[in-house]
Design goal:
The complex is a heterodimer. By secondary structure, chain A is mainly alpha-helical. Chain A is about 75% helix and about 0% strand. Chain B is globular and about 75 Å long. Classes of the chains: A mainly alpha, B mainly alpha.
Chain lengths: ~325, ~290
């Protein structure tokens, strides 16, 4: 129905019906609230949290279209359209940071992903319960250390008189300042990620393996399959759906490199390769107070992240009904 | 008894060797830091210390433990972690419970609202501005309040509540209890497993948090442990003047190592108690990807 036209009788009827239905909805809601008020009261703190910490910042993203100043506030800051997005793409800094983010994400996804699968397959072959538990404990512990601590450990191990340089010294190599050398940053990022989280990542696979019907192994053994063959032709194929789902979810999250992880490994000497979108937003937005510009960067990242997660989650849901939403 | 061929034995032995090596590699960096923290500075400088302390000394530890600001940060983090975990469980349960109830009319819309917050992540700058505008800048409450509800944990708890038998609640209603009593005296006491798992999730996040204090706390009085440790590790001004090297047994590296180990100890101490909730937790958490 366009404005200025007189509505037909049928359209009027529809409008009235809609009004009535929404009226009934409101009445029903009020009734529901009165009858079950404790449920509403309970939910209140949680709802308030979601509004303040999730929705207000989400709506606050509009400052990407402004020249936001804290003194003028959201209402009085001038609107500038897509100015910040335009400068963004022309900025060589931004291009470098974007490339760094994509490269680190790709490396992380490709190199770190298979490790937990292999570990889980191997742990599964350990029969002695105590040995198994010991191995698992050793592999899980790093997961509970914060990235500050991991950073501290890594800087110490790679120090000029640290463990790494002592060991390569035994083989006749000169000491290397690994953490201050941009050539090694990506490797350090990936390896520390594996060191901290690969053991933890095995848990899901271990659970999937324990759900496999033991009869399958029995019949495989009857057919004369060795342990190696059983692993290859029974365990691995049955693990495949889990692996595939987690892999797709991983690709979907591949822009999420972990601010803490990268920030605690960075030195001024490794900025050229280690500066990523998250650390860049922190520097420009929080430390230098270029609020609108940094919001534009963040928004760009959020949109790409959303598209990635959405696409790959859809794919994983097609494989099984184990998707996120 | 299962028959094992020679090949199988070699296969299993090889796996054991590889896993053993990997476990050692996983622990080596920890051993190295611990050794450095208990060694004298001069042996460390001579590239002598690998995974066992040399010229054993408590001096680095003595220096660190005598610093009151480190203890202040430690207790601040301990308290905020404890209060934060309890508060988080409370708020999460109080939202998850209505969401699990059919009679809660806005439940469906609310769930959509929750999922939206998981899909669309707000950029960090408007988040920063929002949190600052509600007075959490340089306020120790910023170590607690932003962490009291996690959508993933909320969904885990709601799923758990949904599996509750209806008969139990009906019996409670007959005795005249309301929803609040029902939740706190019947449902929560029967949800210990999920509460423990979520306490682990929330507790680890609160204890290890770095980004929030980095963004929101500039007042060194309110530095939590992780920020304090980072300051020790990276800020040369934090280190004592080491001109009189002959008199002390520590150097910058041994002091830093002692600080790092100091922060690891609490984690190692609670690890055995939490271990039994790991598998369950990681299983539910695997939805997190």
């Amino acid at each position: 129905m366009t404005q200025g036209q007189t509505p037909t009788v049928g359209q009027l009827k529809q409008i009235i019906r809609k009004r009535l239905r929404s009226g009934r909805l409101v009445a029903g809601l009020l009734h529901n609230m009165r009858k079950y008020w404790p449920l509403y009261a309970m939910a209140l703190p949680g709802i308030a949290f979601l509004v303040i910490f999730k929705y207000v910042p989400l709506l606050g993203s509009v400052i990407a279209l402004q020249d936001y100043s804290v003194f003028r506030g959201l209402q009085d800051s001038p609107w500038v359209g897509f100015k910040h997005f335009e400068t963004l793409f022309r900025y060589p800094d931004f291009q470098r940071v974007l490339v760094n983010t994509l490269l680190l994400g790709a490396l992380k996804t490709i190199l770190a992903f298979p490790i937990p699968v292999m570990l889980a397959l191997m742990i599964n072959e350990v029969r002695h319960a105590l040995v198994k538990k010991g191995i698992q404990t050793a592999l899980y512990i790093p997961h509970f250390l914060s990235w500050v601590i991991v950073g501290g450990i890594v800087f110490d191990v790679f120090a000029i008189s640290g463990l790494f340089n002592i060991v390569i010294g035994w083989f006749g190599y000169d000491p290397v300042l690994v953490m201050q050398d941009s050539r090694f940053f990506r490797a350090v990022y990936v390896i520390t990620g594996i060191w901290r989280d690969a053991g933890w990542g095995t848990i899901v696979y271990m659970a999937a393996i324990s759900a496999i019907d033991p009869q399958l192994y029995e019949s495989a053994m009857m057919d004369g399959a060795s342990k190696w063959k059983q692993m290859l032709y029974v365990t691995l194929p049955l693990l495949m759906p889990t692996i595939l789902i987690l892999f797709l979810l991983d690709i979907g999250n591949f822009m999420e490199l972990g601010f803490d992880h990268v920030f605690n490994l960075l030195t001024p000497m490794t900025y050229s390769v280690g500066d990523i979108l998250d650390t860049y937003v922190f520097r420009t937005g929080i430390q230098q107070a270029q609020y609108s510009f940094a919001t534009a960067v963040g928004l760009f990242q959020s949109v790409i992240g959303f598209i990635l997660v959405h696409t790959f989650n859809r794919m994983s849901r097609k494989i099984s009904d184990g998707g996120l939403w | 008894m299962v028959f094992e061929s020679r090949g199988e034995k070699v296969f299993r032995f090889a796996i054991l060797i590889v896993l053993g090596l990997l476990s050692v590699i996983a622990l080596l960096p920890l051993l190295s830091v611990i050794s450095v923290s208990f060694s004298s500075g001069w042996v460390v400088d001579l590239n002598q210390v690998t995974i066992w302390p040399k010229a054993f000394t408590f001096d680095s530890w003595q220096y660190m433990i005598d610093r009151p600001d480190l203890w202040r940060s430690f207790f601040l983090t301990l308290i905020t972690t404890l209060i934060g975990t309890l508060l988080a469980l409370l708020v999460t349960a109080m939202l998850a419970y209505p969401l699990a109830k059919k009679e809660f009319m806005i439940g469906g819309i609310l769930m959509v609202g929750v999922v939206i917050t998981m899909v669309f992540k707000a950029p960090i700058v408007p988040y920063f501005l929002t949190v600052r505008s509600i007075g959490l800048y340089d306020n120790p409450l910023v170590l607690i309040v932003p962490h009291i509800l996690n959508p993933f944990n909320l969904i885990i708890m709601r799923t758990f509540f949904k599996q509750f038998p209806k008969e139990l609640e009906e019996a409670a209603f007959m005795e005249g209890s309301g929803y609040f009593r029902l939740l706190f005296s019947f449902v929560l006491p029967l949800s210990k497993a999920v509460l423990a798992t979520l306490a682990l999730f929330y507790g680890v996040v609160l204890w290890n948090q770095f980004q929030h204090p980095l963004f929101f706390i500039t007042d060194t009085d309110w530095y939590p442990l992780q920020i304090k440790i980072r300051q020790f590790i990276t800020d040369p001004n934090e280190m004592p003047f080491l001109a009189s090297r002959q008199e002390v047994n520590y150097n910058e590296r041994t002091l830093r190592s002692a600080t790092v180990v100091f922060a690891i100890i609490p984690v190692i101490l609670v690890y055995p108690f939490l271990q039994k909730y790991f598998v369950k937790g990681a299983m539910i958490g695997s939805v997190k990807g």
